[in-house]
Amino acid sequence: MNQRKGKTILVVEDDMASCELFKSFLASKGIETIIAENGNDAIEIVRENTDIDLVLMDIKLPELDGSSAMIEIKKIRKSLPVIAETAYALKGDKMKFLNLGFDDYIPKPIKPDRLYETIKKYI
Fold first, then answer.
1. How wide is the angle at C-alpha 29 spanned by C-alphas 115 and 2, nearest 5°?
2. What is the C-alpha radius of gyration for the chain, rounded to an integer number of angstroms?
3. Which of 1, 33, 76, 90 lies at a 20 to 30 A Cα distance from 83?
4. So what's the pLDDT on residue 87?
């Protein structure tokens, strides 16, 4: 049985095409998604919804960037896994994001198999 069925992932992404891809892929695995289009909204959603099991956080966001939003989210729920995702991947980025406090990192373009393998580590 799929242990991730019934889980909820907050996808923080300002690109609606990417949101639809995430929603479609995660739904096929029985995972519910909640979408936030910026870091401020993500913080409020985490504050108001204790059912969130994991956060996929884009780094380049309007209003409040992903790194700043992750720091605030970790103040609310320290143990909530937050995975960074960015299209501007450079060598050494993974360590940079882990050192900032993210639990993991996935470069864009997102490969579904890699995404699922990363999610399985945390939920």
1. 105
2. 13
3. 1
4. 78
CATH number for the segment(s) 8-117: 3.40.50.2300
- Rounded distance between C-alpha atoms, residue 75 and residue 111, angstroms: 30
Secondary structure (H, E, C), the chain: CCCCCCCEEEEECCCHHHHHHHHHHHHHCCCEEEEECCHHHHHHHHHHCCCCCEEEEECCCCCCCHHHHHHHHHHHCCCCCEEEEECCCCCCHHHHHHHHCCCEEEECCCCHHHHHHHHHHHC
So where are the chain's domains? 8-117
Sheet of 54-58, strands arranged across: 32-36, 8-12, 54-58, 82-86, 104-107
Distance CA 86, CA 94 (A): 10
Question: What is the token pair recorded at 58?
Answer: 């884009």
Average pLDDT estimate for 5-15:
93
Q: What residue type is assigned to position 16 of the chain?
A: M
Give the pLDDT confidence of 37-87 residue by residue, as tens digits. Answer: 999 999 999 999 999 999 999 999 999 999 999 999 999 999 999 999 987
